[in-house]
Amino acid sequence: MRESRIVQGLGVVAIALAAQGCASGPFALEVRHAGKLDPEKDERIAEAAQALPWDAPYDDILVTNELPDGLVMEKGTLTAQSDKFTILGDVRSFMDDTRQVAFAKSVFWYESMHETHGTGRDVFCKVQTPLRTLTLGIFALVSPTSWPCYVLYTKKLTTNAAIHRGEMRRAARAMGGNLVILTGLDSVSQSYVTGYGANAGTGFESVPGGSAHGWVLIDKSRAKITPTSAP
């Protein structure tokens, strides 16, 4: 009987996911300014970047994986050979949690969604947290209102790449740059639990586009961006 209920519950989840789709979890930013090491400044600017509206107009900030004339990449370090460019620093954007952990949080309590899904959906799901927690996830399985609240990072490279580009634009805005050279869009290896009890183990999966790296610059031939936070 218990096994039957588990199977039924999993069936409900599968139907819900197919019908509604999962939301992506939040991404994090790490900023490292060029020049003197200043971790406090780096952290402050990273926080300022992620506080910026996701849907603000960032069309004036170019994100490209092509290296313009006057820039040289050697052993992973970008240098400018033209006065046209000022290198402000580099940025890493990455998934803030693993796929399995983010999904478990969304079933049993609460996991933030990426801003691409809008604040309304996130708030709608957040207010249902007590019901998911008090029922040990049963509410998440059986209630249609909870089905849009599943959070599962995608393994679709194009979707993750689009989110990374948005994050890089926010970082560039906060740093005062107008050009991002995207140098890496990497797969990341994430662990997950297999089996239960005595049969529990650990598996690994590769998530395409789980992390991205780029350099933020001022291209003086373009309009300079005013930083959103004092350096």
- Compute the number of helices: 7
How large is the radius of gyration? 21 Å
Cα(first) to Cα(last) distance is: 62 Å
- Overall mean pLDDT score? 85
List keywords for this structure.
alpha+beta, 5-stranded mixed β-sheet
Description:
The chain has 231 residues and is an alpha+beta fold. The protein has helices at 2-20, 39-51, 99-108, 119-126, 129-134, 138-142, 157-175, and strands at residues 27-33, 62-64, 71-74, 77-80, 85-95, 179-194, 201-219. Strand 3 and strand 4 (77-80) form a beta hairpin.
Write the layout of secondary structure elements.
Layout: H1 2-20, E1 27-33, H2 39-51, E2 62-64, E3 71-74, E4 77-80, E5 85-95, H3 99-108, H4 119-126, H5 129-134, H6 138-142, H7 157-175, E6 179-194, E7 201-219
Parallel strand pairs: 2-6
Antiparallel strand pairs: 1-5, 3-4, 5-7, 6-7
